[in-house]
Amino acid sequence: MKGVSFHHALTVREELCQGCTRCMRNCPTEAIRLFHGKAHVHPDKCIDCGQCMDACPFDAIVIEQDDFEKIFSYNYRVAILPSVFIGQFADDIPERYIYKSLLDIGFNEVYEAEFGVDILQTIGNRFSTYADDKPVISSYCPAIVRLIQIKYPTLVKHINLLRPPVEITAMYIRKKLLDRGIDPKDIGIFYVTPCAAKIAQIKSPEQQKPEDIFTGVINLDYIYNLVQSNISKNKKILEEISSDLPIPPLTPDAGLWSLTTGESSTVSGRTLAIDEIHNVIDFLEKLENDEVKNLDFLELRACAGGCAGGVLNPGNRFLAKERLFHRSQSMKEITLEQEAMICMQASYLQHYIKRDRIEAKAVFQLDEDISKALEKLENYQKVVNALPGIDCGLCGAPTCSALAEDISKGIADITQCAVLKLRRTDDNLAIKKVWGNSLEPHQP
Amino acid sequence: MDKRYAIPSGDFTHAGQASSEIKRLLKQLNIPPKIIKRVVVSLYEAEVNVVAHSLGGEVLCSIDSEHIKITVSDRGPGIPDVGLAMSEGYSTASQEVREMGFGAGMGLPNMRNNSDEMDIKTSPEGTSIFMNISFKEN
Ligand SMILES: Nc1ncnc2c1ncn2[C@@H]1O[C@H](COP(=O)(O)OP(=O)(O)OP(=O)(O)O)[C@@H](O)[C@H]1O
Ligand SMILES: [Mg+2]
User: What is the pTM of this model?
Assistant: First the structure.
């Protein structure tokens, strides 16, 4: 197991953080602690799922992105959009307006990330899973892959080792541009992301390669604003100037891929789709206990509704989903001509279709040395039993057991427990009224 | 370190509690994933057997730096023919238990395959199963 931290896209803006503990209590991996009244994210435990950002009422948690102007350092600029981007716009704004506006703000070409689904299905004879153990777990959502790496080390061998469609799309486009004779230095491929996890994944040193799949990442809400204002400004002429704009093809399968059940419905065998990170955690506990039998494929997504629920989407996720469904009804199967285009790149893509093996990261170990870890574990058990067990968060840790773990590691102190302190003072009658005797130490 | 868990008879909703908690402890000790998996499978099957086939019992886990020793004991009615019970596919599980997804007759064989050492003592007064799993990968 490796000790290296992930790259993280989420950061706390200390000047805005009020120390309200909401992010800390919502974090599914207990990665956040309060320190001097500010939230601090533990880099090893953070999976960039964005729950903290969603919970923060002060906008104190932000997602890094590349400066938009960076795209102009490249002569040939490609935007890769998640399909859910289209779903952010009101129904009366045609797709053409959105595509045209993306060209107007500076891109030379625009593709939807899910085009990779069509590529994979064309070159891969519909094979879409490859892993050591069953059920195969989708590798599509990077927050889920990280969750498994840190919290479910026994399940890493279930993760699908094929590259996700978005990377296939980018590789395909880059190869096509290179074949056209464009200088590699001139090509800029930018991903427009609906969430933090995808940024973190793209920027991680351990992934990327075949010639550096993405040049940069731009947050979806930022691009949304640019496109929306372009549409407002040019509404009158957009109808005319976008009338014969070619829109890259997409099949209905691909167009719905990023929504819950979008992927699992295309995989054969017994499949299951689960969304929202806490639901996923409950399920992975069961899977790890070997309580789940006979499943072939698991689609797991950190956000409710799949990518439509991404934290950077400005619109309502149910409306976004409805628009994508509506749109998929007029989508067509891939034509022979398109298939031929894809097949020209087939051998190149097949060569790089597999991603690197995924390693577990032992971030919950108490000590490298097992004897010392055992000692700390004994200590931890004692402390847990002494703590009130109400997970109030006033100590700066999300739960009593998280505090006990910190104490046993020597990075926190039992005097941080506000409830134990209250118990010692004489005038705790008001508190007793609320809590009865539950503040007394419970029996081990 | 010793951990003890009571297992009431017939309560399938809580079967797996001991294995879940032991799993968490083993992760804190950074035991290799393969070994954790073997412990969890062995312990979970043992727990379910106590719930499904006995009048209730308990699990005792002793963990040191080299292995985990698991003793699962119950208050009867015992296993009449251990040799038969250990064979794959043999089960006396009721229809009700089968409907809950148990009763394939793979529990005891799985426990034997996943532990380094296994010993069963049984009489009408109760069954006691001892399992030892080493933390060393081989
Ligand atoms: N603790 C026990 N007390 C009494 N009988 C038991 C006990 N454990 C197992 N048995 C008997 O041994 C048989 C085989 O057990 P085993 O765990 O291999 O299969 P199962 O429990 O029937 O099905 P599965 O474990 O696959 O769900 C059981 O059907 C039961 O008759
Ligand atoms: Mg059994």
Answer: 0.88
